[in-house]
Amino acid sequence: xxxxxxxxxxxxxxxxxxxxxxxxxxxxxxxxxxxxxxxxxxxxxxxxxxxxxxxxxxxxxxxxxxxxxxxxxxxxxxxxxxxxxxxxxxxxxxxxxxxxxxxxxxxxxxxxxxxxxxxxxxxxxxxxxxxxxxxxxxxxxxxxxxxxxxxxxxxxxxxxxxxxxxxxxxxxxxxxxxxxxxxxxxxxxxxxxxxxxxxxxxxxxxxxxxxxxxxxxxxxxxxxxxxxxxxxxxxxxxxxxxxxxxxxxxxxxxxxxxxxxxxxxxxxxxxxxxxxxxxxxxxxxxxxxxxxxxxxxxxxxxxxxxxxxxxxxxxxxxxxxxxxxxxxxxxxxxxxxxxxxxxxxxxxxxxxxxxxxxxxxxxxxxxxxxxxxxxxxxxxxxxxxxxxxxxxxxxxxxxxxxxxxxxxxxxxxxxxxxxxxxxxxxxxxxxxxxxxxxxxxxxxxxxxxxxxxxx
Length: 455
Known about the structure:
The structure is a single chain. With 455 residues, the protein is an alpha/beta fold. The protein folds into 4 domains: 47 residues, no CATH class; 111 residues, Immunoglobulin-like (Sandwich); 218 residues, Glycosidases (TIM Barrel); 56 residues, no CATH class. It is 25% helix and 31% strand. It has a 5-stranded parallel beta sheet with strand order 15-16-17-18-19, covered by helices on one side. Strands 8-7-10-11 form a 4-stranded antiparallel beta sheet, with no helix packed on it. The protein starts with 7 loop residues before the first strand and ends with a helix.
């Protein structure tokens, strides 16, 4: 974030006020003398900031780390500077690395650069002799560092400043034990600082407001707290919704929960309009540049269920698309890239993927009660299961909190508003228990728990 208070202010409150009056619209103008220098209009769905800097500004900071055999860490601080003038500027880049959530020595580097007009990228090495590493919560401590980068022009003085939170950790991918190369040919095990990270994962179903009310900070904090309390050490953001807000990743950094990130909302469809592919690739690069400093981020996926088609040629073109997407982001991150999931369904195997790579374990849900989970799950012999769907509902006390009393039973429209597939539940009840069990709410709920093995 930018550190100069006189150049930074939040417009979020003003925009929310506009939303109450009319539309959630934003229009801003900044003038110097009589010249209009900035004009922005549009619609806001996330917090908005307006930032100002000198003629040379920091566009991006990216910190890569390499842990050496002696325990030290070599950092490469990649700084992109934008020179908005038409002449070369002499800029001093000052970098200070120190503990963000713990006390540490400050590691400082100062370099002088001749910054040409336009974009300039510099790789600046910093040696940390005794680094405190970042770990998932069940493997170690979540040490976070801060990189404070400021730039000053030799003649004009201060230009810009940016602080970036990051963790020193090293990622590698390893093959899952137990399979031959004829069964699995891709690595699925994340190695963090040389140790195996066994994922106990869940799919993050979308921003909290997808289910109820507005999203706010405390709601995010509580959900991440509950995830950790449930013994979860990884969350997958799948392709049905956009990448999360910065607070989500910050909380995962602090909680020691890793993140498997599906890049952008492309699930089962690929456009063919002129410029569509270029726009998607540019958005993906932007997402990577925004998220790549978060130590919690360990895996990147291109597209979810994108091979689910009825045409072999369409499956081939979609696979080509996600493969090209992976190549487009490769210059911007060293994170392991998975083109799509699942890879081992019928279409995936036709395209050459091995039979035990990955599967989406939705059979228990979509089979409508033909078998129970004790029989189904032991048959899933795959290196990775990115999704596992079950059908259930909250307990009666919870249901009463969000369903109006007059609509509790028989079910009213509010059940549909909360995406309750009651017809599917009734069929499951009948196929497993021989009765639809719809006489009253508590019976219906008890049957649902029985089917899923909770009782």
